[in-house]
Amino acid sequence: MAVQFAVLASGSRGNSTYIGGPGAGLLIDIGLSTRALDGRLKAVGASWSMIGAVLLTHTHSDHIDPAPLAEMARRGISLHCHSGHQEALADHPGFQELERAGRVHVYDDEPFLTTTAARVDPIRLSHDGGPTYGFHIEVCHARRGPAARIGYLADTGRWSELMVDRLVDVDLLAVEFNHDAEMQRSAPRPAHLIARNLGDRGHLSNNQAGELVRRVVARSRPDRPRDLVLLHLSEQCNTPELALEAARSAAGEGRHVHAARQGEPHPRLMVEPRRSTPSRPRSSTHARPRRPRSPALAMGSLFDQDSPLDPTPVETS
Predict the structure, then answer these.
(1) Would the pTM of this model clear 0.85, i.e. be above it?
(2) Band (276; pLDDT cuts 50, 70, 90)
(3) What proportion of the chain, given as a percentage, has pLDDT over 70?
(4) Which whole number is the average pLDDT over 121-127?
(5) Which residues have CB under 8 Å from 28's CB, separation 6+?
(6) How far is Cα 133 from Cα 108, in angstroms, rounded to an integer?
């Protein structure tokens, strides 16, 4: 049975993505108001009642609006976050309610199982929002059945071969194509913001993201990824046409390429689980075995990193 993947919003004014599994669904980030999330979920045939967990990438305000935390607590929805996120959110009443209810589960760099039974392999990213993560997510409809594999990587100023390791052979790859570098350099905005967005702790340009996609495709089986989703396009320093051109050139033939939008849910895709054949070996720099852990065990893993929640939107477009 296919797994639904729908980007509810993507950009500097708010980010959230819905993954509909066999049971309760999963949200990646909640950077919209409770009411806006409700409307976007309905637009893709879902609702708050279908959500079992939220997976947080980092605490910039375009990725988490604290208001929906209270709705999550009221509905018994779990939050999976890093310890640095936990520290940044500690003063918010909705987060405190989730903690009192035992609904906060802390992840580190090791694979874990969400409360919705999705297997998540965190991917540490390079961004100025404190601890920032992308994810390799596997969703199964049956205990021994094939998994739908989704790679999700947004908000990073650079990529590495270690990131590629975790994205090889996914069925759907979602990657940020934030800006066109020349448009960014000539934009009428403060020099420090331009330098930040172009830097190693900012955002990927179309060319950088294209090289990442090209590398993932080169190391993956010929039929994977089937779909490529472009995330976090800048409204001032990019266009869908430029991003799509770079992505299609990198992805090659036989793949569907979609540019996510800020103002409406798009795309809405169905990811078909496929049985794996023997996979290619990972690079020797990342060859250790990895074992998923339960949310309860993940709660014991803490990092000593700070990630202050910025109450104002971070301009990246």
Answers:
(1) yes
(2) low
(3) 86
(4) 97
(5) 16, 17, 19, 54, 55, 57, 135, 152
(6) 10
| 175-184: average pLDDT | 98
Band of residue 310 on the pLDDT scale cut at 50, 70, 90: very low
Q: Per the domain annotation, does 294 fall within a domain?
A: no
Q: What is the dihedral angle through the alpha carbons of 31, 177, 310, 113, rounded to the nearest 10 degrees?
A: 60
Residue found by looking up tokens 């709660």 in the block: 299
Q: Looking at the predicted structure, is the pLDDT value of residue 302 above 90?
A: no
Residues 6+ apart with CB under 8 A from 188: none
pLDDT at 306 over 70: no
Q: What angle do CA 267, 268, 271 make, to 5 degrees?
A: 115
Tokens of 266: 């798009």
Question: Number of structural domains, the chain?
Answer: 1
- In angstroms, the Cα distances linking 218 to 14, 92, 95, 290 are 32, 44, 42, 23
DSSP codes of every residue in 190-247: -HHHHHHHHSTTS--BHHHHHHHHHHHHHHS-TT--SEEEEE---SSS--HHHHHHHH
User: Is 143 inside a domain boundary?
Assistant: yes
Answer for the pair 243, 175: CB distance below 8 angstroms, yes or no: no
- Please give the residue range of the domain that contains residue 252: 3-275
Q: CATH number for the domain including 270?
A: 3.60.15.10
**Separation CA 240–CA 261 (nearest Å):** 9
- Inform me whether the pLDDT recorded for 92 exceeds 50: yes
- Residue 283: inside a domain: no
Assess if residue 264 is contained within a domain.
yes
Tokens of 301: 């893993």
Q: Is the peptide bond between 273 and the residue preceding it cis, with omega within 30 degrees of 0?
A: no
Q: Which two tokens stand for residue 24?
A: 């309760």
